[in-house]
Amino acid sequence: MEYIFHILILLSIYGILALAQNLVMGGTGLLTIAGAAFYGIGAYVAAILATKFGWSIMAILLIAPIIAGLIAFLVGASFARFRDDYFMLATLGFLMIFNTVAKNWETFTNGSFGIAGIPKPYILGFTLDMPMTFVVLAIFILIIVVTVSYLISRSSFGRALNAIREDEDALQIFGYQTSRYKLMIFTIGAAFSALGGVLFASYITFVDPNLFTVNESILLWAMVILGGIGRNRGALIGALFLVIIPEILRFIGFPTEFAGLMRQCIYGLLLVLLMLYQPRGILGTYKL
Amino acid sequence: MEFFQLILYTISTGMLYSLLATGFGFTLRSVKFFNISYGGAFLVGGYVMFLFYRMQNIAFLPSLLLSLTASGLYLLLAYKFIFKILIERKAKNLVLLIVSFGLLTATSAILGMIFGSQATIVTRHLSDIDVVNIFGATLNTVQIVGGLISIPIIILSLAYVRYKTRFGRAVRAIEDDSEVAELVGIPKNKILLKTFFLSGMLAGMGGILEGLDVGIIPASGFLYMLPTIVAVVIGGMQSFWGGILGAFILAIAQQLTIVVFGGSWVQAVPFVILIIMLWIRPEGILKR
Question: Which domain of life is it from (chain A) (predicted)?
């Protein structure tokens, strides 16, 4: 039973991350590989504020998305003129810089050793220290993110984002300031990813720089593409598949590290095969 | 550390980056996307060398030829069965980028499952590598024979092939405009297959040198892609010599960072330079 709640928590966290990735990559067609960076920023903000300054996780859940959003706003604004491949390269640069800072700014991040002893959330006299109770908070946050994602995709803002994906130049001719729209969704996506990061840090009680690498971002790509680019439900389905697969492998009896590599192999190949044979993913209506 | 030693290290790093950037540039200019799976060929070279040279105890030269062939074939097959199909469908660059990331991710996971994720040393005995004293500074024989002697020979012979042979002319014609090249009767497909094979061999050579010198890990395929891409972008991707210029600029910048800030910040350097370059001169230093 404990184990099922554990899976549900992981599902909520990756659901949040995949939805955030989908808003930016699926809805707007901005290929970013910085997903893991904002996820990591959320997790590190939680770790640092909670262990060094004694903040409660509930307060951090409010502040971390704002911090990540601010960083994303500045980064996005300075990357605004890069398009397609170059935008991807620039976000890759940002991810590597984040990783280097996490590894080296030892006063705050403890370097490669990471930060341990991150507390569990505490609300209304309860400490959510069991998976059974933590899952309530995780699902609550997931529901918020799902709701906002749906509101965005059904709004005129969301339709403008889809139009940017289809034909940015045409939209500019109609007088839309497409760079503002892109900056906005990049910021919102980062704020959501940070929520996932805070939940993750508090649940695992530990962060280190190796948790937030390029592979993690590629995993998020695979979730979005597998589920169906541009579909919120697709992102959730993609997260479901890719969270369950390593658990099944471990259940069959593969050691943890090997199961991790097998998952990496699976999502790597998935990206190749999907793009070749099923670019719309499971649910998708749109292909890149 | 002594000044002369630093210069030697910078040159030997710059040489390795030049080799990688030259090979990467060949496919980048002809198919016009950032082929991240180039890092996979790097890994295949190093690990196949390990397999033949160290595990099977086959002599050095035959092992070298076998591993270079394997890494060339890796990229050739990737082109023939994946990229070519996508390019013929007129897939966007983003799709090709995602696919090549997927391919590298899967390759490094598979190699990790086979060889483990710790460093795999290709050299048979540590005593096989001599340390040579040059005016008070030291380099080992791999760095001297591999880096300082063979890489310039390889690059110069590639320049000869590129500018003085029929094959080289065909390659340049395809780089200029592949449709026109096809119209005037250049066997585009055949030339591209050869280009990918050649490019894979150069990546494989890098992996072999890395494996002989300090050992290879599955993550190094991606880690070496970073300076490679950055060198090509800052040097000017349209120019054969641009990648080499970029490689040395990068090597110098990294060495200076090590001296001023310490070795651990070095990973962020390429990206700081990349982002600055994308701002001020996205086409790179050298034009064609």
Answer: Bacteria
Helix (H, G, I), strand (E, B) or coil at B132: strand
Is residue A29 assigned to a domain?
Answer: yes
Instruction: Please determine, for residue B283, whether its predicted confidence score (pLDDT) is greater than 90.
Output: no
The answer to whether B156 faces chain A, any CB pair under 8 Å, is no
Please indicate whether, in this complex, the C-beta atoms of A269 and B34 are within 8 angstroms of each other. no
B132 touching A (Cβ < 8 Å): no
Q: Give the integer Cα–Cα distance in Å for A200 and A6.
A: 12
Mutate to test the interface with B, among A266, A272, A278 (most CBs of B within 10 A): A272
Is the residue at B284 inside a domain?
no
Interface test with A, best of B36, B43, B96, B98 (most A CBs within 10 A): B98
Total domains in chain A come to 1
Q: Is the pLDDT of residue B191 over 60?
A: yes
Cα–Cα separations (whole angstroms), residue B241 to A131, B2, B37, B157, B233: 58, 30, 22, 13, 12
Contact between A69 and B240 under an 8 Å Cβ cutoff? The reply is no
Nearest by CB to residue A31, choosing from B33, B97, B103, is B97
In a domain, A245, yes or no: no
* Candidates B86, B265, B267; nearest CB to A275: B86
Any domain includes A10: yes
Task: For residue A97, give the nearest of B91, B92, B271 by CB distance.
Answer: B271
Range of the domain at A89: 2-212
Query: In angstroms, how far is the first alpha carbon of chain A from the final one?
Result: 40
Segment A270-282, tens digit of pLDDT: 999 999 999 888 8
pLDDT of residue B78: 97
* Cross-chain Cβ contact B278/A258 below 8 Å: no
Note the pLDDT tens digit of each residue in B88-128: 998 888 999 999 999 999 999 999 999 988 888 888 877 77
Q: Is residue B227 situated within a structural domain?
A: no
